Amino acid sequence: MRKLLLILSTIASCVPFGHAQTLTNSNLPIFVITTPQGVSIGDEPRIVAHLGVIYNGTNANHNINDPFNNYDGNIAIEIRGSTSQQYPKKGYGFETQDALGNNAQVGLCGLPPENDWILYGPYPDKTLIRNVLTFHLAREMGQYASRTHYCELIIDGDYRGLYVLMERIKIDDFRLTLQDVSSPNIFNDTLTGAYVLKVDKLTGEVGHTWESLYDDEVLFQFHDPEFDELNSMQASYMEDYIGQFEQAIEGPGMDLPPGQGGWRDFIDYKSFQDFFILQELGRTVDGYRSSSFLYKDKDYSWNAKIKAGPMWDFNLSYGNADYCLAETTTGWQYHFDQVCDFTTSIPFWWERLLDSPGYRNALRCRWDELRQGVLSTSYINNFIDSVAIDLEQARIRNFQRWPIIGQYVNWNGFVGQTYQEDVDYMKTWIQQRSEWIDLNLAGQCNLSTNDIEHAPEYHKAWPNPFNDQITIGFSLFDTRAVSIRVYDLMGREVAFADLGTKFDGTHAHSFSSADWNAGSYLYSVMVDGEELYTGKLVKQ
Predict the structure, then answer these.
(1) What residue ranges define each of the domains in the chain, with the CATH number in brackets?
(2) pLDDT at 540 > cutoff 90
């Protein structure tokens, strides 16, 4: 018949009975990987294997005898991760390929098409939720974060448990939508973007690195494009730019108004504030100093300043580590270097920016706003509970395969005797952590829209990318006359709305976009005739 019969016969004859019979059907997609005989998946080089994906849609049943209807072809796969490779449940990175070995763009499990994917296998995080929760919160806050989809995995007939299909962080039309660094725009701007960097430790796959001007334990790496894909001028430009940014933050003119060389000239401060908030909320033990990303678009693009993010690697967060006070709900994670001495340090900017009253007050406003919505205890608990319900059958199979409930796994800050105890601990920890931040975050939320230089960028467009309708929401801190303008990249207006006088608070307006052409657009929220908020839209 087809490849599935061969795989099923392998399941029946080549693996232990317990593993073979664990999975027959699931409410989650089923991934089946078959490697060439005698070849195992290792940490470099990648090997070519076969992947079949059974995906019948959201809330559908998936049976092991169903056809491979979402993907049925070759992949190049390897074990991924650094310290996570110590665990018996491995994580994998893979590329989908055509018959000739070229990259094949595929939309797996309803996610946007790409060829570069991750199968993350939660292990020390026994809730199986921490990364998915963090990425979800970041997206709801208006930032890009890897989209995820839970699935169950079989490799060569061996049931491997519950996994999370994830997007790899990279520049892409549906991921980080930055201009191609190698393509000139109308200003012939080929050096100033787009770059994705990370602050990280020297483990795993490490390329070219350079040190902070102020701390040789803060190490930068090129992530996308990788260093060997850049020419010397491009690499030097970005290294120099990071140096200028650090000098501006450290210098006496750090808090100068826009255009005078202070922090406002270098960073997209809403992304920095959101990054800070999620790092502190999760108190991830690796926070700020490793697996921490930054990115920059070209100078003549819409997002030319340095942005913090995307969020990454939160499996040892929300109280799930037992060293360096990571399990405590009090204290600031950006003070980590005062608690523990590691080979990597937290960049000084995170604390230094708090010396700016404008930044500090806007951060306080942002936290207060989020606590009324996506970071409220009720919202977070409801999300965790809904995911736990969806995972009920799959997580039972997962912990039959990996019987670690009630056992200490490096570096658990809490060991529940049941799955529900682990979930309840995380929920309680997040609530207590949030309440501590409520009481201890500096700053005063007393900003108004007439202070344009310091006004927090409280605005969001959703869904983005969009199809037939786009909604633009924004917050005001005073009574003002408001209008919204949407225009294409050539500056031609495609939509306009005069909203009249709006009082302080949160507002939103929807545009019908069915007749707009696919592509990128920009929007401006005008307050008393001045541009207060701006953003980018993508029509699919």
Answers:
(1) 3-167 (no CATH), 195-358 (no CATH), 459-539 (2.60.40.1930)
(2) no
